Amino acid sequence: MKQKTKAGISFLIILVCLGYLGYQFREKLHLQEWLDKVPFLVTEEDQEEALESIKWLTFVHGTLHYSMKYPDTYLLEKQEDGNVIHFNNHGKPAVKVRSVTVRERAEKGLWLTNNPVEMATMAGQTCKKYTSREIDGSEIVEVLSYVINAEGRLFAVEFPTKNGSLSPTQEVVLGSFQMDEEIAASPPH
Which of 67, 107, 162, 165 is the most buried (most CB within 10 A)? Predict the structure, then answer.
């Protein structure tokens, strides 16, 4: 009888320990999910140092007369006759540049479902900033679109974000976007 009681108590202790370990493991998973969503505090010094370590390349669109800087880790992919340019970073969308006429905008429904959230600056001129949500695999991503009207076309630089604000790298890309008069004056390549 004593052996059955000892075995029962031992079994109960093991069961309680396993339950506790399972609880701790589950809590650790929830903590990791939470940590993945929280942006870590990084000093401006750290951000500047990280930006300085990036090797920047320049993309020039000779036909649509714009240029912009992008990190060398981004992979360039052209689509739709050059009117939509995608840059991916390690297989994930990093930035998209879209050029459409006002008519094409209406036909495709671009930026129509949203009012601009604010005015911003791009390519040295005032632009409209839009937000939208897109599904990327299993997660919903907030996309920030900066739209200007130039040369009779609408140009949008679009960034997927996790928290609805641009990263320092995205800010450099946006700040470098410019309409190039020199490119416009030269014949297309």
Answer: 67
